[in-house]
Each structure stands twice: as C-alpha cells, then as structure tokens.
C-alpha cells in the first residue's frame, strides 16, 4: 500500500474496501483466540480484486509515457508473422508481469505448468459482521484454513481452502456446509450455508512455485511470473510491487536479481511454511502448529515479529530461522513431555521421526533451490521434487488437471501499509 500511495494511488476510498488492523486466529483447540495486530498504528486494506485491478489499469492508462492496450493477448515472445511475413519488435527489455502462466517465463525455458496444492472457494456474505471489528479472521480446524475479511458495508468475503480431492466429491457442498459451517460464527452460518447451496461461490486454484530465476537483462520476470505461493499469508502483491519498484530503480539486472533474492527469501519461506503448518493434519504438523499457538500466546514480541515478517517489513532469514528453530524445539519438547506416559511412546517416536525426516528434506530442498537459482533455473525440477518430500500439502507433485483458474472475484486482502 505504501508503494501504491507513493505513486499517487489511493485505494482506501474504494467502494467495498475496509481498513485492516491485523489478523485474529481462531485455533482448532477451541482455546482463546489470538490477536496479531500490525505493529505501531499501521493499517492494511481488504478490497475486491477487481477494484485493485481497475485502479491500476486507470493509473497506467493515464501515464503519458505508456501505450496501454487492454485486452491484447501475447501469444509468444518470438518473431511474429503477419500476412505471411515475419515481423519483430525490438525492445531493450521485456518485463514478464504476466502472472502464473507467464508467456515470457515459458520463453525462457522455465516451467509454467500449474501445480495445484488446493482450491480456494470464495463466498461473499451480505448483511453480516465479523466478531472482531477491523481484523482479518483465520479459522483453523476445517478441511483447510478458512479466511474471512470485512469488505465494508456489512459485507464479508469468506475464503475456504479445500483439498482438491474433497472438492471432487459429489456431496462437496453439503460436506463444506457442515464441516466449515460448524466453525463459522453463528451469525454468519445461515447465509454461508445458503450461498453454498445456491451455488453462489467462485473457485480458484492455489499453487506454489518458488522463485528460481528472474530471467536475464533482456527478459525479466516479476510478480507471480517469477514465483507464487498460497494466498494464506497474502505476500503475493507485496512481492510483486517490490519487484517492479526495484527493477525500475536499478540500472543493473544482476544487482536487481541479487537484491530480490535477498528480499524475498524470508517471505517465501514463511509463505510456504505457514501454509504447510496450518493446512496439514499429520501429527508432526499438528505439534508444530500447536507450538506456534503457544509462542503467539506467550510472547507479544513473537506476535509482533510474525506480523513484521508477514508484511515483508522484516526480511531477515536469520531472524526467521531463529523463530522457526524455537518453534521446532517447542514442538519437540511437547512431544517429549507427552511421552512420559508410556502409552504415548509409539505416537511420540513416529511423530519425532516424521518431523526430523521432513525437516531434512526441507533443508535439502531449499539448498537445491538456491543452487538452481545460481544456475539460472537449471535443476529447478529436482529442487521441487526434493521439497515435495517435505512439503506434503503445498507441493503435491500432481499437475493441475481441473482447468480452474483464478477469477475476478478474489479478495486481495491486508496488504500492509
Ligand atoms: C484466491 C487468491 C487470493 C489471493 N489473495 C491475496 C491477498 O490477500 N494478498 C496478496 O498480496 N496476494 C493475494 N493473492 C496473490 C495475488 O493475487 C498475486 O500475487 C498477484 O495478483 C500477482 O500479480 P501479477 O501482476 O504478478 O499477476 P496477475 O495478477 O496474475 O496479473 C497478470 C496479468 O497479466 C495478464 N496476462 C497474462 N497472460 C497474458 C498474455 N499472454 N497476454 C496479455 N496479458 C496477459 C493477465 O490478464 C493479468 O492481467 C491471492 C491469489 C489468489 C489466487
């Protein structure tokens, strides 16, 4: 939001938008909710995707040095033919800001095949209010995390993260109505169930693709074309605007790429790790998640650090690594404490073993990803395969066959100020 404001783009007065003070988490253990306010008096914003896109289009169209061609499709980044003759346009630099299925990315020989980890079912509720005013809500304990954002004027956007196999079931609407409906605040439940039964929802595919390459000086990738993550942590737009700003300000591509690797490493790891910990129902993920809740509950400093990391204000991998290490230690101690009861030994042994195995693959996978990065993208698939052994939910190896795409009714929420 700060970047947009610096360019004279104000989204706050937009219709159906709402200022956000942070997040409130409702853990599945039913214990007290956890408030994660943004540090200081900074605010975020929740707003419909279409509103953000049209504001950006308007700003670009009004810029004198830009020829904006809405509706034009780029088919290939190669010499093109017209009337049987081959033509080409010469540009000093082509910037691929064309999203997850980027044509520019494909032209660099990098993979664009969609890898779907889950589906996002979006439902708009009217004449309802969230329990905690001004906060985004995250509910745990459903088939996947549930996000809820206020959109102003008593409208609330509900986003259900749903595993693909659950959505493939013929009774999916009733299953979602009962499993997710039971977690929603009572006041929202009737309109939620009715909207689902009336088919008033949209579905988008969630995917994860770590940033491996930014291209080369003549063909640069920014935003989702460079890499993308599950929207749970809402870092996508912050990283995309950061790419654009740094590219515009940098004279040297290599300096730009180095700067972005440094700035995006921590948000990337956080986005991947947080989704994994909150969406996975295996025992080792559950003990990690409970350790996160305990850390948030016990220490305001940890809550503060989490929101800074989520907002990409703190991009230190050392601090992120330290926080992750502490969480793992807390999780292991909790398992050890439970194993005082000898009936819990088999569970404790299996949980610790799975945790260690997954951490090992995670470490190896990130190392291979950084090697692939230094090699300009070579080895990308191998890194992905290794990471998939650690990230069992977010990096399922199945390729998306649903044909579902993100639609215009998505919520872009709480991009921090
Ligand atoms: C359900 C959902 C919820 C999300 N919520 C949040 C959130 O709360 N906060 C957040 O920060 N991020 C969120 N994200 C992520 C965020 O939407 C993306 O990170 C962001 O939109 C990336 O911007 P982009 O410009 O790189 O790509 P896109 O937004 O995908 O834009 C790419 C543009 O390029 C155009 N294009 C593509 N191919 C071609 C072509 N061949 N020719 C011409 N034009 C082309 C497209 O039409 C589009 O306009 C969410 C994503 C999803 C799916």
Report on this structure:
This protein has 417 residues and is an alpha+beta fold. The chain starts with a helix and ends with a strand. The protein contains 13 helices and 15 strands. A hairpin with a 6-residue loop joins strand 9 (135-139) and strand 10 (146-150). Flavin-adenine dinucleotide binds at residues 73-74, 97-99, 103, 120, 204, 223-225, 228, 231, 234-238, 240, 406, 410-413, 415.
Helix content: 40-55%
Oligomer: single chain
Instruction: Write the element-wise H/E pattern from the N-terminal end onward.
Output: HEEEEHEEEHEEEEHHHEEEHHHHHHHE
The percent range for strand residues is 15-25%
Strand order of the largest sheet: 3-2-9-10-11-8-12
Low-confidence parts, pLDDT < 50 over ≥5 residues?
398-417
Structural class: alpha+beta
Mean pLDDT: 88
- Gross morphology is globular
Which molecules are bound in this entry?
flavin-adenine dinucleotide
């Amino acid at each position: 939001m700060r970047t947009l404001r610096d360019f004279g783009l104000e989204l706050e007065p937009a219709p159906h938008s709402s200022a956000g003070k942070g997040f409130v988490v409702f853990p599945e253990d039913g214990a007290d909710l956890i408030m994660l306010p943004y540090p200081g008096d900074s605010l975020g914003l929740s707003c419909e995707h279409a509103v953000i896109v049209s504001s950006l289009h308007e700003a670009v169209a009004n810029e004198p040095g830009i020829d904006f061609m809405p509706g034009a499709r780029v088919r290939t980044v190669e010499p093109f033919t017209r009337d049987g003759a081959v033509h080409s346009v010469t540009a000093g630099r082509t910037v691929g800001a064309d999203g997850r299925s980027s044509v520019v990315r494909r032209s660099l020989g990098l993979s664009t095949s969609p890898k779907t980890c889950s589906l996002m079912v979006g439902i708009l509720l009217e004449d309802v209010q969230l329990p905690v005013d001004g906060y985004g809500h995250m509910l745990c304990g459903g088939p996947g995390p549930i996000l809820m954002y206020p959109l102003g004027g008593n409208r609330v956007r509900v986003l259900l993260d749903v595993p693909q196999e659950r959505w493939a079931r013929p009774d999916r609407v009733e299953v979602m109505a009962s499993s997710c409906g039971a977690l929603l605040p009572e006041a929202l439940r009737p309109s939620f169930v009715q909207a689902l039964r009336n088919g008033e929802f949209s579905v988008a595919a969630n995917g994860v693709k770590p940033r491996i390459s930014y291209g080369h000086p003549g063909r640069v990738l920014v935003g989702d074309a460079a890499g993308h993550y599950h929207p749970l942590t809402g870092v996508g737009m912050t990283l995309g605007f950061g790419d654009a700003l740094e590219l515009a300000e940098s004279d040297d591509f290599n300096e730009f790429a180095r700067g972005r690797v440094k700035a995006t490493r921590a948000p990337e790891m956080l986005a991947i790790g947080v989704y994994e910990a909150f969406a996975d129902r295996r025992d080792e993920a559950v003990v990690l998640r409970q350790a996160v809740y305990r850390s948030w509950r016990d220490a305001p400093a940890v809550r503060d650090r989490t929101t800074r990391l989520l907002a990409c204000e703190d991009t230190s991998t050392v601090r992120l690594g330290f926080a992750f290490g502490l969480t793992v230690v807390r999780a292991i101690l909790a398992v050890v404490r439970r194993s005082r009861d000898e009936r819990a030994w088999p569970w404790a042994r299996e949980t610790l073993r799975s945790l260690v195995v997954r951490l090992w693959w995670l470490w190896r996978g990130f190392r291979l990803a950084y090697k692939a990065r230094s090699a300009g993208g070579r080895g990308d698939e191998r890194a992905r395969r290794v990471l998939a052994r650690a990230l069992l939910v977010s990096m399922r190896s199945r390729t998306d066959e649903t044909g579902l795409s993100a639609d215009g009714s998505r919520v872009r929420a709480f991009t921090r100020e």
